[in-house]
């Protein structure tokens, strides 16, 4: 086995100078996101690790895909009755992290989570491939299923239910928007003396701070 302690990378791809950072979290995230999307070395630039807290106070984290990004926050889509859905119903807050290893960059966000409007969910759902639409109807996300065959049978049932007609968004499925109260940009630097710039909302005003790495 490879000794994980022997794995070492020197981060020297870039730096985050105070004068180069945008004056707000959104344009800065957009700039980094666009660079990530444009680079074929970055796989699934919109993948984000999304952490929630269960009703019992236990954290959980999973990967989801960002499907909306604007000044209001980041939007992901999921099953409202999933484990994360139950967590968010009890504690409507999340922490999220994007990491673009090829760029030696990380962005962390925290904030309140709200469901997006039904119109927004329906518009996004309509843009999905039909097989993904069927999957959203068929999968009781986070529940135990008896077997792969049982899951495939649920997909077949959904196929039969909708035949060739249009597929509406399931009522138990939709978007979540993380409305940030803090967004931190991290750029790896040599000697582990990384750059960290955090935008933080305090009393209605966004502060910009540099953090020690
Ligand atoms: C690359 C990747 C993208 C994913 N995108 C989504 C997504 O957009 N929405 C979603 O509900 N689950 C997505 N998943 C699956 C989740 O990680 C997770 O397995 C699922 O949402 C159930 O999580 P939960 O049981 O904590 O609710 C993705 C997984 C990976 C690895």
Summarize this structure briefly.
It contains five helices and eight strands.
Supply the helix-strand structural class: alpha+beta
Q: Tell me the domain tally.
A: 1
CATH homologous superfamily descriptor: Electron Transport, Fmn-binding Protein, Chain A
Number of strands: 8
Shape: globular
Name its key features.
26% helix; alpha+beta; six-stranded antiparallel barrel; 5 helices; binds flavin mononucleotide; Pnp Oxidase, Chain A; 213 residues
Would you kindly provide a written description of the structure presented here, covering whatever features stand out?
There is one protein chain. The longest helix is centred in the C-terminal third of the chain and has 15 residues, at 148-162. Strands 1-2-3-6-5-4 form a six-stranded antiparallel beta barrel. It has five helices and eight strands, in the order αβββαββαααβββ. It has one domain (8-129, 171-210): Roll (Pnp Oxidase, Chain A), CATH 2.30.110.10. The radius of gyration is 20 Å and the shape is globular. It has 213 residues and is of the alpha+beta class. A hairpin with a 2-residue loop joins strand 2 and strand 3 (73-79). Helix 4 (130-138) crosses helix 5 (148-162). Flavin mononucleotide binds at residues 44, 47, 60, 62-65, 76-78, 82-84, 141-142.
